[in-house]
Amino acid sequence: FNTAAFSLPPAFTFGNVSRTIGSVRSPGLHNLDLALDKETQLFERLHMQFRAEAFNLTNTPHFGLPDTAMSDTLTFGQLNTLLPSPPPRQIQFALKLTF
Question: Model pTM?
Answer without folding.
Answer: 0.57
